[in-house]
């Protein structure tokens, strides 16, 4: 597995080795030992999620205050622009973000640890997005920050269609007014 560091030290890009020939390909999409070596952290994944969205659908910036979820995310069809935002109030990188393209072609995965918000927008006609989580979904503690908050300054790709957001995402907070992760 190839490991790339990002501007946020805890957020890591993982690219599995792909073995292919004229028949197709094989790759190990997850291996606990390789994940721990690559990220330097031990996590137990408890839930796998799969979403399919059309071009322009933007989901996020989501996070949970209770039962925070670490997420290992990847795309198995299409492509997305994926973003992680540091929401740990005591972090030197608080409010900073990283973004990368995840696609079925590049096989990249992004580790988004607990304490970070997560969002993505679909760049291809459709995309199938998979994520492993370290805790269960807890709707009562889910929070959302607006994708276009000027305080974050996230650089979203230009698409031939307008962004499509859920009502929840349209009503997201600004970073300034949001409940975020506090020091323990």
From TrEMBL:
Site residues by UniProt (Participates in a stacking interaction with the thymidine ring of dTDP-4-oxo-6-deoxyglucose): 137
E.C. no: 5.1.3.13
Keywords: Isomerase
Enzyme class: isomerase
InterPro entries: RmlC-like, RmlC-like_jellyroll, RmlC_Cupin_sf
UniProt-listed CDD domains: cupin_RmlC
Catalytic activity: dTDP-4-dehydro-6-deoxy-alpha-D-glucose = dTDP-4-dehydro-beta-L-rhamnose
UniProt keyword Isomerase present: yes
Metabolic or biological pathway, per its Swiss-Prot or TrEMBL entry: Carbohydrate biosynthesis; dTDP-L-rhamnose biosynthesis
Record note on quaternary structure: Homodimer.
Protein name: dTDP-4-dehydrorhamnose 3,5-epimerase
Gene designation: rfbC
């Amino acid at each position: 597995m190839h490991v790339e560091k990002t501007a946020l030290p805890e957020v890591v890009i993982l690219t599995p080795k792909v073995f292919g020939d004229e028949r197709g390909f094989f790759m190990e999409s997850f291996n606990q030992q390789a994940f721990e070596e690559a990220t330097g952290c031990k996590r137990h994944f408890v839930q796998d999620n799969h979403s399919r969205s059309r071009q322009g659908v933007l989901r996020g910036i989501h996070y949970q205050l209770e039962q925070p979820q670490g997420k290992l995310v990847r795309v198995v069809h299409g492509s997305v622009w994926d973003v992680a935002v540091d929401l740990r109030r005591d972090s030197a990188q608080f409010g900073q973000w990283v973004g990368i393209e995840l696609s079925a072609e590049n096989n990249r995965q992004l580790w988004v640890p607990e304490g970070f918000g997560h969002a993505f927008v679909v760049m291809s006609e459709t995309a199938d997005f998979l994520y492993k989580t370290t805790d269960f979904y807890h709707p009562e503690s889910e929070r959302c920050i607006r994708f276009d908050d000027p305080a974050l300054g996230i650089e979203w790709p230009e698409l031939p269609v307008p962004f499509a957001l859920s009502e929840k995402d349209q009503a997201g907070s600004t970073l300034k007014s949001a409940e975020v992760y506090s020091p323990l």
